[in-house]
Amino acid sequence: MEIILKQDISNLGFKDDIIDVKNGYGRNYLIPQGFGILATESAKKIHAENLKQRAHKEAKIKDEASVIADKITALTFRVGAKASSKGKIFGSVNNIQLSEALSKEGIMVDRKKIVVKSELIKEVGEYTAVAKLHREVTAEIKFEVVAE
Fold it and tell me: Measured between alpha carbons, how far is residue 19 from residues 24, 38, 65 in Å?
């Protein structure tokens, strides 16, 4: 079954992608939740026309995302966390704290678009994360976890 996605869905596709999914997943989850519509011939024609009209706006959004990506990769962020004398963190550092660190520098990135590479950050040190700013633009976030 072919579905036209109405919004980005992680591990499935981006907005306006035409994807193949199993019938039950499409009919019972994606369409009722409003995440996609059935890709009939008429829907595909309307979709193609909308993409044509939106191409200029998409190029502008992609350029803005690449500028933000350049800013992010040029900086190293510091994230403070309560830690023991041996360097073990009480709790862990996650994408929410990274989003807050980015916003302090004037860079607004949604926390849902930040993926921390290592599973759990439990010690003081330097780490990296990835920010998915656009369909084709990603930025590597270098950050250092310091004890408060």
Answer: 14, 10, 24
Residue 13 neighbours by CB under 8 Å, 6+ apart:
5, 19
Domains of the chain: 2-64 (3.40.5.10), 67-147 (3.10.430.100)
> pLDDT tens per residue, the chain (148 residues)?
999 999 988 889 988 899 999 999 999 999 999 999 999 999 999 999 988 888 888 889 899 999 999 999 998 888 888 888 888 888 888 888 889 989 998 888 888 889 887 777 888 889 999 999 888 899 999 999 888 8
* pTM exceeds 0.70, yes or no: no
Euclidean distance between CA atoms 78 and 80, whole angstroms: 6
Structure tokens at 55: 């191409």
Tokens of 118: 């290592």
